Amino acid sequence: MVSRSICGKLAAVFLCTGAMAQWLDRKSEGIPRTANGKPDLSAPAPKTADGNADLSGIWKPEDNRPCPEIGCNDMKIGQEFMNIGWSIGGLPYEPWAAELVKSRIARNGMDDPTSRCLPGGIVKTHTVPLYRKILQTPRLVVILSERDASYRQIFTDGRPLPLDPNPSWNGYSIGRWEGDVLTVTSAGFRDGIWLDRNGSPLTDAATIHGALPSGEFRKIGN
């Protein structure tokens, strides 16, 4: 479990709470709790043996978007799933990107790569309302996602990003610790990835800077 002070620092989407996943009735050890047995979100963040914040555990997106009156058609998605720039009033698109998003919205997302069972990339997968598990070692952080049973590696061993990478859906990620925040830089993406369901574009020239954990995700267990 990670304190709210930690959860509020990732660039976009996570919060922290009590336990689900496969062992529904087992309480994770080492999580500070209030008198009623619930995780204490104001408690200091746990630390690993090397002194960094311990991000290990199962996380889910924040529930910040109500279902319409007729109910949710599928999964209950968050605001960022539709519009990754929702919390800042929308992304500052260049004119070509604004027109592209407009046309994609008009087609109701028919051209979304995930509609053809292709990977969604690290940003869109970040907002999918399914669980993900973080595994943390001193030199590597791995995020296992229920979406497509996919994974992402963030190397924290000091290596640089590759200079001429083979483009991939998840790109290449390196991270460094700044206090309790893991700052992550990612590049080497395929062209044509969508950042959200509205179709915000990501090109193969993109570099993404972010931090873990984010204020838009909730830790639910180990």
Terminal CA distance? 8 Å
Order of helices and strands: HEEHHHEEEEEEEEE
User: How many distinct folded domains?
Assistant: 1
Class computed from helices, strands and strand pairing: alpha+beta
Short structural summary:
Helix content is 12%, strand content 24%.
Note down, in words, how this protein is organized.
The N and C termini lie close together (8 Å). By secondary structure, the protein is α+β, with helices and mostly antiparallel strands. The protein is built from four helices and eleven strands; from the N terminus they run H-E-E-H-H-H-E-E-E-E-E-E-E-E-E. The chain has one domain. Strand 3 and strand 4 form a beta hairpin. The strands form two sheets. The chain has a nine-stranded mixed beta sheet with strand order 1-11-2-3-4-5-6-7-10. Strands 8-9 form a two-stranded antiparallel ribbon. Helix content is 12%, strand content 24%. The protein is globular.
Topology:
Layout: H1 4-7, E1 14-16, E2 57-61, H2 79-82, H3 95-106, H4 121-127, E3 132-137, E4 140-145, E5 150-155, E6 172-178, E7 181-187, E8 193-194, E9 201-202, E10 208-212, E11 217-221
Parallel strand pairs: 1-11, 5-6
Antiparallel strand pairs: 2-3, 2-11, 3-4, 4-5, 6-7, 7-10, 8-9
